[in-house]
UniProtKB/TrEMBL annotation:
Residues 16-62 form the Ribosomal RNA small subunit methyltransferase E PUA-like domain. It catalyses: uridine(1498) in 16S rRNA + S-adenosyl-L-methionine = N(3)-methyluridine(1498) in 16S rRNA + S-adenosyl-L-homocysteine + H(+). GO terms for molecular function: rRNA (uridine-N3-)-methyltransferase activity. Its main location: cytoplasm. This is Ribosomal RNA small subunit methyltransferase E. GO terms for biological process: rRNA base methylation. Specifically methylates the N3 position of the uracil ring of uridine 1498 (m3U1498) in 16S rRNA. Acts on the fully assembled 30S ribosomal subunit. Residues 74-226 form the Ribosomal RNA small subunit methyltransferase E methyltransferase domain. Belongs to the RNA methyltransferase RsmE family. InterPro entries: Alpha/beta_knot_MTases, PUA-like_sf, RsmE, RsmE_MTase_dom, RsmE_PUA-like, tRNA_m1G_MTases_N. GO terms for cellular component: cytoplasm. It is found in: Cytoplasm. Its EC number is 2.1.1.193.
């Protein structure tokens, strides 16, 4: 099944944008009368019938609307941008496929890259949402300062920190049905001051395993572990 995206559908916009229209008509060869599947990125799927197969503005009428069941937990990954932008894009793509609700890009003391195209990450997220047939588009935030994100609220807050004296694995202390926030640091890790600030604001220091992980791998591991904790 191919899934199309129209975020303004709840506001009565019954056509695909130019890119989606081109893909629908030119690439997939849909015609007037064909049934297509659309999401608004807000938790709903729509079965729609094409009323005008125009590759610039494909119009449709709604046949059926269905809601995606709401999860009883949320996953918020706050991650430092990698020096190579492709790697953080890879993280966003895979995290959306696995199931993430919010991705915040954070600026830490050892962050190597402070410029990021948020619009590009949002496009990656949309593509991953459609590919994995999800009805909700995760929120992308950034670039946020560490001092701001560390004051965020969540029912369970974790900071992944590379530390030989860090016995608590995330899988052992993540409780099901919670709103999670996990901080993932840059290649040089969080500074001692950042770690202290996080702990002072209610974060628990956690391990993601014995292997030393790249930033984007650590973010994905945390996302996967939290989803598994709720299976």
């Amino acid at each position: 099944m191919n899934l199309f995206y129209q975020p303004l559908l709840p506001e009565g916009i019954l056509y695909l944008d130019a890119d989606e229209s081109r893909h629908c008509i030119k690439v997939l060869r849909h015609n007037t009368g064909d049934v297509i599947h659309i999401t608004d990125g807000k938790g709903f799927f729509y079965d729609a019938v094409i009323t005008k197969a125009d590759d610039r503005q494909c119009t449709f009428r709604i046949q059926e609307k269905s809601a995606k069941p709401v999860r009883d937990y949320t996953i918020h990954i706050a991650i430092s941008p990698t020096k190579n932008a492709d790697r953080i894009e890879w993280f966003v793509e895979k995290a959306v496929e696995l199931g993430v609700d919010i991705v915040s890009i954070i600026n830490c003391e050892n962050t190597e890259r402070t410029y990021l195209k948020k619009e590009r990450l949002e496009k990656v997220a949309v593509s991953a949402m459609k590919q994995s047939l999800k009805a909700t588009l995760p929120r992308i935030e950034g670039l946020l300062e560490f001092d701001a994100i560390v004051k965020s609220e969540a029912s369970q807050k974790f900071i992944a920190f590379v530390d030989q004296q860090n016995p608590d694995h995330l899988k052992n202390i993540a409780l099901p049905g919670k709103d999670y926030l996990v901080l993932i640091g840059p290649e040089g890790d969080f500074s001692a001051e950042e770690l202290s600030a996080a702990i002072a604001n209610g974060f628990q220091k956690v391990s993601l395993g014995q292997s030393r992980l790249r930033t984007e791998t650590a973010g994905l591991a945390a996302c996967h572990i939290l989803n598994l904790a709720n299976d």
